[in-house]
Amino acid sequence: MSRPAGEARRYNNMEIELINICYPIHTPSNRVVSSQEFLSWAKSDLKGGDRRAMGNALSNIKKSIHSRIDEILSLSHISFSNDWNSRTTTDEKIALLKKLNIEHNSIVKIITKIRNTYEHQYILASDLTDIRAYYETTELWLNHSKENLIRSRLGLINLPVYTVECDSNRIVKTIEFPQYVDSFNIVYFWEKKNITAILTRNNREQTEKMKELERAKFIEWEKKHLKVSDKTEPYYLNPGNLTKVFKIYKKTLDKRKYGFYLINPRISLTY
Fold it and tell me: The domain that contains 138 carries what CATH number?
């Protein structure tokens, strides 16, 4: 049985971990152009070497950045909020990235400004070397964001566990819950019902419709959990098993609280 990668805590002389579980990684339609594909087009454009190639490369560099911004924002539940606007401007999206603690927003601003100068004032960078520098800077930013951010939306955050078993893709197979824990707010983004369900520190459940929440609330919940490291990499479950884990954790709370279990309760998940 493996120890989970999460935030280690001690509670009542027992070492527990707080883990996050995400929804499955989404595979977009073949018709959707990804940020990485736009960047590959820019690389091909640069091989042309003439002014047309430079202009096309710059356009694809900018599309790559803006596509990645949208990909990052889709990792949160901001778009589920009551004050989300699908026509949110680039500047507003960059401000949201900052609130979510996503770094290097100045890179996005600079390259967007250069591309807009080309598109709206028809002024192109004077040298192919400059375009290559913009390409390489964008490539670094994209790679950094992909390596250091979660890959799909959060499902459960702050779930206290004793041990977790998962496969090579970090899809959970079994979870062993610890003895009674009452010190953490556990949040379940229950997308099927379009609600957030919270088990509070005194183990009361609170539910709110996502469309009745402002995006600031989702930012507050999620900004600490979008980045990954060796110690905070999330796990993955399909929607049905996410609900099962949340319900069983809640159901066993009282029995764990009053010592009805001789051993830690354990849940096995099937697919």
Answer: 1.20.120
Do 16 and 102 share a structural domain? no
Q: Which residues pair with 206 in a beta bridge?
A: 198
Average pLDDT rounded to a whole number, residues 139-145: 91
Q: What is the DSSP letter of 149?
A: B
Give the pLDDT of residue 257.
65
Q: What does the alpha-carbon distance between residue 160 and residue 119 come to, in Å, rounded to a whole number?
A: 51
Take residue 82 and report the two structure tokens written for it.
């009551």
Residue type for position 187: V
Angle between helix axes 105-121 and 128-148 (nearest 10 degrees) is: 140
Cβ partners under 8 Å of residue 13, min gap 6: none
Which tokens hold the place of 160? 């206290």
- Whole-number pLDDT of residue 127: 81
Q: Which of 28-37, 231-240, 251-260 has the lowest mean pLDDT?
A: 251-260
Nearest to 178 by CA among 165, 163, 199: 163
> Cα(266)–Cα(100) distance, rounded to whole angstroms?
34
CA-CA distances (angstroms) from residue 63 to 32, 90, 204, 210, 225? 13, 12, 45, 30, 27
For residues 101 and 197, membership in a common domain is answered with no
